[in-house]
Write the structure tokens for this entry.
Amino acid sequence: MNFDYNEEQQLLADSVRRFLAKDYGFEARKKIVASKEGWSAEVWAQLAEMGLTGLPFSPDYGGFGGGAVDLMGVMEAAGEALLVEPYLPTVMAGELVARAGSDAQKKAILPQVVEGRLRLAFAHTEKGARYNLAKVSASAKASGAGWEISGEKVVVLGAAAAGRLVVSANTGKGMSLFLVDAKDAKLKSYVTLDEMRAADVALAGAKAELLGAEGGALALIEEVTDFATALVCAEAVGAMKFACDTTLEYLKTRKQFGVTIGAFQALQHRMVDMYVSYEQAKSMACLACSKVDSPADAKDRARAVSAAKIKIADNARHISQESIQLHGGMGMTEEMKVSHSFRRLTMIAQQFGDAEHHLARFATLDRA
């Protein structure tokens, strides 16, 4: 398999990296994280102007019709820069609208997303569900021409910045998806370990609009979650690259006993192992993204995504821990970006299922 970007993908990735390097440096990011909102409307507008918010959506709605492979370069750049804007939550919820919504719903929502005027979030995870996508207690009932939803969702990334939420709930016909105005939900927002903004969402008879057909939404949720998992794997690759590069630079400049510590063979071996882990992770992320883009069956897609997530989780731990250890005590300080990369890689290892969860999933798929 060819893991190289084509010319257009490479140009896009380079363009995003240049923008983030120029306008989203570590000091600028610290100010954004410390702000009340925890993300920058100006940065979001620039992402939209560059076409990133429209990249995965159909040209019928102003997008570019790209897939996960086209988004890989964007996500890698986001991982390097530790982007905190709610890009992936909006893309994930937007994919649910694009794949399940009626023509009217797509025309009403997707052009706003593409233009950067509307941010979305997917409210699905509940207390006690762990990583089981089928475990949903929120319920929905018909009310006049619409629906009402009651229940609670937890750790909804991007919810505080979203104008609309895509919410999963059970009806008499099974799990379904609904559109809810964020203002109709009660949000308890907080900062996560990796400085993202998430919220617990309480719904008490909130007015909702059925998204797609009633019942049978679980297969679509699994499909879009695999899509998002492949993208977060690509984001991890970007964070790993930064961790490797900044650690190598540190070894070349930090002196001890009169010589740079990079001259010690034991540290050279550890550095090589970090780059090997990075290359392995990149290959697995490429495979996962290609599988979620291909017309392969659901089992083949799920196996590739779980295999990638297992490797990403293991290698994220290896690279993040080694980068801190090779920096010494200063690697743990707030002033060093590498400590923030450690946090993001630690959270990515858990997002959409940890290694243990995906090992069990992979084993089940392998036996099926």
Notes: The first helix runs from residue 7 to 23. The radius of gyration is 21 Å. The beta strands are 120-123, 139-143, 146-157, 164-171, 174-181, 186-191, 197-211, 255-256, 259-260. The mean pLDDT is 94.
